Amino acid sequence: MESVKKKRRLSPLARRQRISAWMFLVPGIITTVWLRYYPMLKAFYMSLFNYDAVSPPGKFVGMKNYQALFKTSFYWEAWGNTFAFLFLTLLMVFWIPLVQAIFLNEINRGRKLFTTVYLITTLIPMSVNVIVWKWIWDPDYGIANQIFKFFGGDAQMWLSNPDLTKFCIVFPGIVGGGVNVLLYLTAIQGISKDIYEAAALDGCVGWRKVVHIILPNIRFIVVIQLVLSCITTMQILDVPYQFTSGGPSGASTSLGIFIYNSVYTDLNYGKSAAASVTLFVVIAILTVLQMKLDKSEAA
């Protein structure tokens, strides 16, 4: 028994390695709990009060903030706009970096050049990008209306038209590029050359190679990017706010803008916290469903 106990005891080197590992892990764990989980718990706590910033937490109201929120028409309009942004993003933008990566994988000359060009787009600040596109959508001297007039169309009030504003906000994403191209390209190049050679012998080339070889082998990274894209779009705030501040007539007011206005315009901290909690719950449910669906299809 004594010999077994001695074997179970950690050597000084193993003990130092374990301590060193925890020394690297603990700061990250503390930071994550402090900056991620504590704000979530704090938001739920605030949503149960008629929160008073001067003398917090204010009067306890239980679930009344949620009840009042669900009776607010602007809240449901914001949800509708958020899902519209999500639909347009998945339809118009999500697949662009994947297509760019597939084409980059097919070329030999100039691959590094085009990869660098795609990555440069990440260096452009979002505010600068918005300024450029607001000039493009300008109804008086914007290039979008100039193109329409050239082909015999009528000038449009792009960002002032409730039916077009969400399209105009999402459309700049068709430029693609960014880190996603590099992630997809790395995943594609990680596929074994033996698989490509075997597919070529069976006549699996061109788009058949993309559908039957490339996409199935990079499915995991595509699903992860899909989940992240959905999460990011559901939380969208900065882009529509810089374009239209949620207008016209609330047509581009996402749930993020609704929460922002509840805090800084209405000064209703309890309502904004309740809206934040509901947004978190919906995103969590959608993420779980996406991961479950991917596992079921893989099985």
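[next item in queue]
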Amino acid sequence: MKCSIFAPAHITGFFEIIENMDPVKKGSKGAGVALDKGVTTDMEIEDGSGVSVKINGKHDARNTSITYKTIDLIKKEFKLDEYFNNKRVVVKHELEVPLGAGFGTSAGCALGASMGIAKILNLPLTFNRAAAIAHLAEIEMQSGLGDVIAEVCGGITLRLKEGAPGVGSADKLILNGSEEDLFVISKTLGEIETSSIIGDPVYKAKINKTGRNLLSKLLENPDPCQFMKLSRRFSEETALMDPEVLELVEILEDETMGSSMAMLGKTAFAISKTPDTSVEGAIVSKIDSCGCRFV
């Protein structure tokens, strides 16, 4: 039994953290962009026992923890411990973007795990309910707040209501004419531990104060340039962007439709009409408008 799932990488431009005692209802509001590069998950059930997870062909205890958490949540909900005493789950994640750098890779791995198990075992789950388990894993691990619903939606995504798919609400910009062929250019300088920001009350206050009114401004003018303008404003007013990232952002600003910092990663990103850039080692992607899917 095998299946494959693709989850687009997702870069958040701005957001607001919304707390809730119910983790399905906890999350973020804001906006971001899904890329045609992301996480492809191959899953197989074979004879044996236990779970094996690799990222780009390697065992990685830190970054595979989200996958193990997702599978554990499914095992508990559907009482599958006995089944997995005689079956081995083999999960292989292939990533086209850097880990821990603001590309939503933990959400992509969680979606690959939840969708894969749901399909292979024919569990009584709809698409959104399977994705909601990935969201729960993200909340428990403090690895993300809104990437799961954004990666399910695709496009330049507006997270209108916080929460898991099926609970929260997401929309996307309509890209007209030449906008359908826009590029996302990004360059990563390093990692930021998401939990160190979203779990810090000082950063959280800055994020929410700044991000609270930006979504309504994007809804008033739902345009890629407006998205980038508001993202830049957010990165500056929250003081999350360090001088190294700012230097890259300013280079990209001159070459593109607008640039900012990926939330949350030491990564500069821009939306551009062309794939050309003077930034060495940049990742050049298109916008993925389809969202998470079986492949």
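[queue empty]
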